[in-house]
Amino acid sequence: MAKGQKPQRRGRKIDGWIILDKPPGITSAHAVGKIKRGLDAAKVGHGGTLDPLATGVLPIALGGATKMVPYVMDGIKLYQFTLKFGEARDTDDAEGAVIETSDNRPDDATIQVALSAFQGSIMQVPPAFSAIKVAGERAYDLARAGAPPDLAPRPAQIDRFDLIDRPDADHAVFEVASGKGVYMRSLARDLARAVGTVGHIAVLRRLAVGPFRIEDAVTLDKCINYDHSADCEPDLVKPVETALADIPALALTDPEVAALRNGMALSLIDFLGRIPATSSPGNGLVRGMAGHRFVVLGRLSEGLLRPERVI
């Protein structure tokens, strides 16, 4: 540090998750910035980007929880969206410009038949307005410059795609359970084409990401107006291991914790009788617990327990 230079203030060390109900009109990065300032947190990230138009569950990782973000993003996501028939837009959502229209409106039976082709493992062309990089440039930057890229189809996993409401002939409401990297805008666009018309997403809300549910989410205002008192923190910040609730827990001794924290792999013979029945000894994850405290995310493989993430 140069003479006379003041040390940079890094903020409070907070470890855990905030389950944010993201409001419309802001980016995920903007939401992270507001929370970082509101909580005076040293380290903040997020799991699973939401478009500015979208609302709903945006997991915010604080401190040690940022190491768990890849596992959260691998979790099943649950969405609800409203598809507006009759208008295709360049962004595939309500924020874009109309590029094509159609007077055709499908009935419920036609929609139900078409849905079967959009479930399971499918190939999907991402929206032109997406963050995918093309020759070093973001696709949305190219699209905004008037040169939308020709994006290649990508694999997408759709576990469930249900028609849940039909408010009128112009709109249909769907619920979708999907894997990582699935674009709801592409799903809406392609379904509209499949039923003989065009369309775009008018409303998009994410209801769940892995173990995080909308019922447990808090507003951005609550995060911004947080008073920093220790008594309030448990109401807002969930433990780091909340993100791994679906991963089996494995009890560890103090020497085992020390070894795993030093990067050592341990023989599964030493864990006979302790390995959770729901884990996969061939290639499965476990939550290493020291009493009630989560300390390491480990992987069972080739007769060994290897540390993947240490807290």
Automatic annotation (TrEMBL):
Instruction: Write out the transmembrane intervals.
Output: none
What Pfam families does the record point to? TruB_C_2, TruB_N
InterPro entries hit by this protein: PsdUridine_synth_cat_dom_sf, PsdUridine_synth_N, tRNA_psdUridine_synth_TruB, TruB_C
**CDD domains named in the record:** PseudoU_synth_EcTruB
Gene3D superfamilies for this protein: Pseudouridine synthase
Q: What is its EC number?
A: 5.4.99.25
Gene Ontology biological process terms in this record: mRNA pseudouridine synthesis; tRNA pseudouridine synthesis
Q: GO: which molecular function terms?
A: RNA binding; tRNA pseudouridine(55) synthase activity
Active site at 51 (nucleophile)
Q: Which reaction does it catalyse?
A: uridine(55) in tRNA = pseudouridine(55) in tRNA
Q: Which UniProt keywords apply?
A: Isomerase, tRNA processing
Q: Which domain of life is it from?
A: Bacteria
Q: Which residues form the tRNA pseudouridylate synthase B C-terminal domain?
A: 185-244
Ranges for domain Pseudouridine synthase II N-terminal come to 36-184
* Matching SUPFAM superfamilies: Pseudouridine synthase
- Is Mitochondrion included in the keywords of this UniProt record? no
Q: Enumerate the NCBIfam families for this protein.
A: TruB (TIGR00431)
Q: Which family does it belong to?
A: Belongs to the pseudouridine synthase TruB family. Type 1 subfamily.
Q: What PANTHER family does its record include?
A: PSEUDOURIDYLATE SYNTHASE TRUB1, TRNA-PSEUDOURIDINE SYNTHASE
Q: What does this protein do?
A: Responsible for synthesis of pseudouridine from uracil-55 in the psi GC loop of transfer RNAs.
Official protein name in the record: tRNA pseudouridine synthase B
Species source reads Acidiphilium acidophilum
What lineage is on file?
Answer: Bacteria, Pseudomonadati, Pseudomonadota, Alphaproteobacteria, Acetobacterales
